[in-house]
Specification:
This protein is an alpha/beta fold. The protein is built from 13 helices and ten strands. Strand 7, helix 9 and strand 8 form a beta-alpha-beta unit. The radius of gyration is 19 Å and the shape is globular. The chain binds pyridoxal-5'-phosphate.
Length: 343
C-alpha cells in the first residue's frame, strides 16, 4: 500500500510552492472499456487532462499554474513563450495570460515540415490570435531561447517587464504541475481502490514525464511512468526528463535521488519527425474516436496511443493489469491535420 508519510511530505512540499488556480481539477479518470476489450490486454483508463478547462485545455495548464505564479511574483506585465505554429503550449499560455490580464508575445518557429492554409491559420494559431497574443513567426532553425531573449530585451527597453517561459513550459517550476498531478491521480486511484501498473503518455519537452516520475517515485515507485517519444529524438528527451525530474525532487527538498530505473521511454512511434503523421497514429486516433468517442490529436496523443497499443500487442501487460493513458490534450490540432486523418 502507498506510504501515507511520503504522501504527506509531497503534499506539504507542493503546498509551499507559489501557485495560481487556472485548471479545472481534478480532471476525470474514466475507464476505456470498449478500447480495452478491442485490444485484448490490460484494463485501460484515461486521465482526462485534455479537460483541464482553460482555452480548450491540455497538460500545459497544470504547469502554468506554477509558472504564472512565478511571473506574478516577479511583477511581470508580459509573458513570452515559444513553440511551433500549432503549439498547444503557447495556446494555453496565451489563454492564461488573457485571463490574468498579462500581455503575451509568442515566438513561433516553423519546425514541422507540414503546411497549407489549415496548418498556418486554423487550430491552435487561430486561438492564439483570439487570445490577443502577439505572434512573431520565425524559421524552423531559429534558436528559440535567443529569439525570446532578444524580444525580452526589446520589451524591457520599452519599459515593460517580461517573463520568459521555455518550450512546453518545461523548466523546474512548470514540471511541478505534474508532481501535483501525480498526487491528484494517486488520490483518485486510492478512492477507486485501484492499483495502476503503468501510466502512459506522450513526452516531448519532458516536463510532464519529469513531474509524474518524481511524484510517483515519492508516492509509489511500483507505478511505471512510460513516456512515448513523439520527437523522434529519444535520447535527448530522456536526458531532459532525467534532469528535470531530479530538479523537481531537489526543489521539493526530497531526500536523495530519483532512482535510475524510474525513467522509461519508448521510441519508434514518432515516425520521421515531430509533427509528421504516421499510419499508426491515424489508426489510433480513428479507433479511439470510433470505440470511445475520445478525441486524440495527431502530434501527441495519437502517437502515444499507437505506442500503448504496440506495448499491449507485445504482451507488456497482463489482463489483470490497470494502465492509465494520460490524455494530454491537443485536439485543436485535429483541424489543421484534417487531410492526414482521412483514409
Ligand atoms: C506539450 C504536449 C505534450 C508533451 O508534454 P511535455 O511536457 O512537453 O513532454 C503531450 N501532449 C500534448 C497534447 C502536448 O501539447
Amino acid at each position: 500500500m502507498p506510504d501515507a508519510g511520503a504522501r504527506a511530505d509531497l503534499e506539504r512540499a507542493l503546498a509551499a510552492q507559489p501557485r495560481l488556480s487556472l485548471a479545472h481539477l481534478p480532471t476525470p479518470l474514466e475507464p476505456l472499456d470498449r478500447l480495452s476489450a478491442e485490444l485484448g490486454g490490460p484494463r485501460i483508463l484515461v486521465k482526462r487532462d485534455d479537460c483541464s478547462g482553460l482555452g480548450l485545455g491540455g497538460n500545459k495548464t497544470r504547469k502554468l499554474e506554477f509558472l504564472m505564479a512565478e511571473a506574478r511574483a516577479q511583477g511581470a506585465d508580459t509573458v513570452i513563450s515559444t513553440g511551433g505554429i500549432q503549439s498547444n503550449h503557447v495556446r494555453q499560455t496565451a489563454a492564461a495570460a488573457a485571463k490574468l490580464g498579462l500581455a503575451c508575445e509568442l515566438v513561433l518557429t516553423r519546425v514541422v515540415p507540414w503546411g497549407g492554409a489549415d496548418y498556418e491559420l486554423s487550430g491552435n494559431i487561430q486561438l492564439d490570435r483570439l487570445f490577443a497574443a502577439r505572434l512573431h513567426l520565425h524559421d524552423g532553425d531559429t534558436d528559440r531561447g535567443a529569439a525570446m531573449e532578444a524580444l525580452a530585451e526589446a520589451l524591457r527597453r520599452e519599459g515593460r517587464t517580461p517573463f520568459v517561459i521555455p518550450t512546453g513550459g518545461s523548466n523546474t517550476t512548470g514540471a511541478l504541475g505534474y508532481a501535483a498531478a501525480a498526487l491528484e491521480l494517486h488520490r483518485q486511484l486510492a478512492e477507486l481502490d485501484l492499483r495502476a501498473n503503468a501510466i502512459v503518455h506522450a513526452t516531448s519537452s519532458g516536463g510532464t514525464q519529469a513531474g509524474l516520475t518524481a511524484g510517483f517515485a515519492a508516492l509509489d515507485p511500483s507505478v511505471e511512468i512510460i513516456g512515448i517519444d513523439v520527437d523522434a529524438n529519444p535520447a535527448a528527451v530522456l536526458a531532459e526528463v532525467r534532469r528535470l525530474a531530479q530538479a523537481v525532487w531537489d526543489r521539493l527538498a526530497l531526500d536523495g535521488q530519483v532512482p535510475e530505473e524510474a525513467f522509461r521511454l519508448e521510441s519508434g512511434h514518432a515516425g520521421a519527425a515531430y509533427g509528421v503523421p504516421t499510419p499508426e497514429m491515424r489508426d489510433a486516433v480513428r479507433l479511439s474516436a470510433r470505440l470511445e468517442g475520445l478525441l486524440l490529436d495527431p502530434v501527441y496523443g495519437g502517437k502515444a496511443m499507437a505506442g500503448l497499443m504496440a506495448l499491449v500487442a507485445a504482451g507488456r501487460f497482463s489482463a489483470a493489469d490497470h494502465v492509465i493513458f494520460l490524455h494530454t490534450g491537443g485536439m485543436p490540432a485535429l483541424f489543421p491535420y484534417r487531410e492526414a486523418l482521412e483514409s
